[in-house]
Amino acid sequence: MVMSATIRIDRTPGKWIVAYDPKYPPHIYFDTNVWIGMSEEDVTSLRNVQEKFGFVYCYSVTNFIELCSHLEDKPAVSNSNPFTIYRSCFRKIIDLCSPQILPSPEMEFMSEAGLDKYIDSAWVPNIDQIAFAVELIANAKNPDELAAINPSHYRILRDIDARSMQTIMKGLQKFSRPLNSEDVDNGLYHWFIELADFFLLRRPSNEKININRLTKEEQTRFVTTLSEDGGRMFQTHCISLVRKTINDGRNIDPNDLYDMLQLILLCGKNRLFVSDEKAFFHYEVADAPELQRVLYWGQFRQMVV
Predict the structure, then answer these.
(1) Residue 1: inside a domain, yes or no?
(2) What is the greatest pairwise CA distance in the chain?
(3) How remote is the C-alpha of 20 from its chain's centroid?
(4) Number of domains within the chain
(5) Does residue 139 lie in a domain region?
(6) pLDDT per residue of the chain (305 residues) written in tens, 0 to 9
(7) pTM greater than 0.85 (yes/no)
(8) Would 2 be classed as within a structural domain?
(9) Which domain holds residue 123?
(10) Read out DSSP for the chain?
(11) Position 136 in a domain
């Protein structure tokens, strides 16, 4: 488990990590799109910074699932050789990352809430198998060598999540533009709890539990965990994104689910999340800026180059 230590950051242009305890260097994890766009020059720079400051780079179960789900993608005009591109991500992970694999956001949340007894065994990843799979993918010459990995399984998981997200998003149709403060304070919050109930309780428990079947004390822990640390970042980001999307008259991309769930991993107080998704920077947690340990990849790159 990651040691708890406080990191103070400044997200204004030209600045980033201001202070941290050298005994507990930051554990830095990256959005999947960052791994995909990371150049060889970026890898070299990140390695140099790692050696100088002792930063620990990590990858998550979410990164693994997302990348695996694309290994059998068909060539397209925008991506003529998808296998090579996604395989390169696993090579970069091996080159840079600690052997420690960050858990799925669902497991992290249920552990923080003291509800991990409800996690279905099918949702508990075998860390040794993931590490083996990363090595196998990195060394594969073509998709035919990945039968033991079964990339289509991860694509199916991604598609199921997308459909689930689309179903939950239908609950937003009752809100009209523009959202007023009462919508945000009441209706939108209740919708968010329904989303959290599905993705953080019902799904990882394989439908064995939901918020209504928890004891009163467990319900309190569930809601409290959504208002603290990574849970609060997840809630703040989700409501901010939905509010802006509704007011702009756009549809929510189901892939946004993966982005926002990764914020739950900020429960570890010496973790930093690096992303190139601008939606993470459309809001401020004014009363608790120490929670907002999210850095923009473009800004991060300027520091390490």
Answers:
(1) no
(2) 56
(3) 23
(4) 1
(5) yes
(6) 344 456 666 666 556 665 778 888 889 999 999 999 999 999 999 998 888 888 899 999 999 999 999 999 998 878 888 999 999 999 999 999 999 899 999 999 999 999 999 999 887 788 889 999 999 999 999 999 998 899 999 999 888 888 888 888 777 777 777 777 666 666 888 889 999 999 999 999 999 999 999 999 999 999 999 999 999 999 999 888 888 877 877 776 767 777 789 999 999 888 999 999 888 887 788 788 778 888 889 878 776 65
(7) yes
(8) no
(9) 8-304
(10) -PPP---EE--STT--EEE--TTS--EEEE-HHHHHH--HHHHHHHHHHHHHH--EEEEEHHHHHHHHTTTTPPPBTTBS-HHHHHHHHHHHHHHH--S-EEPPHHHHHHHHTT-GGG--GGGS--HHHHHHHHHHHHH-SSGGGGTTT-HHHHHHHHHHHHHHHHHHHGGGGG--SSP-HHIIIIIHHHHHHHHHHIIIIITTTTTS--GGGS-HHHHHHHHHHTTSHHHHHHHHHHHHHHHHHHHTT-PPPTTHHHHHHGGGGGGSTTEEEEE--GGGGS---TT-GGG--EEEHHHHHHHH-
(11) yes
- Contacts of residue 268, defined as CB under 8 A and 6 or more positions apart, other chains included, come to 1, 2, 4, 27, 230
